[in-house]
Amino acid sequence: MSKLIVNSADSSTVFQQELEELINNHRQDANLGKVATYIPELAKSNPKHLGVSIRLLSGEIVEAGDVRVPFTMQSISKVLTLALALMDHGEEYVFKRVGMEPTGDPFNSIVKLETIHPNKPLNPMINAGAIAVSSMIRGNKVEKKLERVLTFIRKLSKNSEISYNEKVAESESKTSDLNRALAYFMREHEVFEGDIEEILEFYFKHCAIEVHCLDLANIGAVFANNGQDVETGETLIPPKIARICKTFMVTCGMYNASGEFAIQAGFPAKSGVSGGILGTVPTKMGIGVLGPSLDDKGNSVAGVKLLESMSDRWNLSIF
Ligand code: DON
Questions:
Q1: What is the CATH number of the domain that holds 309?
Q2: Is 299 a domain residue?
Q3: How much of the chain, in percent, has pLDDT values that exceed 70?
Q4: Does 147 lie in the same domain as 296?
């Protein structure tokens, strides 16, 4: 296991070489999974892509593989909408409506909504919880809410060009009976009020926000730095809220594979069905991965193995 210190041109070259070696070792893992097809636009992704960007808190960027391929955030956006809802309303309001516990069920499961009382979703990282959180974001119209999320994500990622992919949002909207079922069930049980189609439109659009690996690495670096901008020290997310988000990433970020990921990789991460993964290693780095081929739980199959190898190689586990 080599130690990760990048403070000279020499060590930076070694780090770069090691990262390229790891990407090459894991490229063939894409064969173990499949791209998501339940959102038809995502079926067009190339299953063989694999890329990773790292933003160290010391400022350096190290990248390897297919890092120039854009992809939609999907469930990764759930971390950012949670942060914004907490900044809008505070903990008491948010956690009265959505819980703090892992489910052990698939991300789109409806089963616990009915069997657990009160019928609020168990956590903000599953679809039900994220739809409830979407209803909390301040803004009287979808456009206003979306603009606020985009402004927040642009600031964290230092990329003013980030927007959403209309085709992917529409594609999901046309095929999203299950998310509609979750939303209607929750409104019936007074988890939230409001226009369901508007809340879902906003949810589909924030899931379709398009990024590159480096954008995720930059966002991860802010979380790794307790919510502060890595360069200026400005507080972009209050430290307690950054901590809450990282804790949810550990306990629920990789859905019903979160326990295994915590053991094998050992740092906060959040996946999306586009094959993206946002990683954050407190006090060290932010990580952005793309690998569209997914395992049966909806996590990037090569991406997860790559992060586990990175953790082994550089001793990244926080536990
Ligand atoms: O609601 C959905 O199903 C998607 N927009 C997001 C799901 C997702 O990314 C789950 N991640 N692994």
A1: 3.40.710.10
A2: yes
A3: 97
A4: no
Task: Please work out whether the CB of residue 172 comes within 6 Å of at least one atom of ligand 1.
Answer: yes
53 touches ligand 1 (CB under 6 Å): no
Does the beta carbon of 75 sit less than 6 angstroms from any atom of ligand 1? yes
Task: Mark whether 128 and 219 lie in a shared domain.
Answer: no
Does the model's pTM come out above 0.70?
yes
For residue 319, being part of any structural domain is answered with no
Give percent above pLDDT 90 in the chain: 84
Q: What is the pLDDT of residue 214?
A: 98
Q: What's the total number of domains in the chain? A: 2
Which residue among 6, 35, 77, 78 is the active-site one?
A: 78
DSSP track, the chain: -------SHHHHHHHHHHHHHHHHHHGGGGGGSB---SSGGGGGS-TT--EEEEEETTS-EEEEESTT--EE-GGGHHHHHHHHHHHHH-HHHHHHHS-----SS-TT--HHHHHSSS---S-TTSHHHHHHHHHHSS-SSHHHHHHHHHHHHHHHHT-TT--B-HHHHHHHHHT-HHHHHHHHHHHHTTS--S-HHHHHHHHHHHHTBEE-HHHHHHHHHHHHTTTB-TTT--BSS-HHHHHHHHHHHHHHTTGGGHHHHHHHT-S-EEE-TTSEEEEEETTTEEEEEE---B-TTSSBHHHHHHHHHHHHHHT----
Average predicted confidence (pLDDT) for the chain: 94
Range of the domain at 280: 9-74+211-314
Out of 207, 227, 249, a domain closes at 207
Tens digit of pLDDT for each residue in 264-302? 999 999 999 999 999 999 999 999 999 999 999 999 999
Q: How far does the centroid of ligand 1 lie from the alpha carbon of residue 272, in Å?
A: 6
Task: Output the CA 130–ligand 1 centroid distance in Å.
Answer: 10
The tens digit of pLDDT for each residue in 134-152 reads 999 999 899 999 999 999 9
Among 10-14, 152-156, 269-273, where is mean pLDDT lowest? 10-14
Residue 157 lies in a domain: yes
Whether the pLDDT of residue 22 is over 80: the answer is yes
273 in contact with ligand 1, CB cutoff 6 A: yes
CATH number at residue 161: 1.10.1500.10
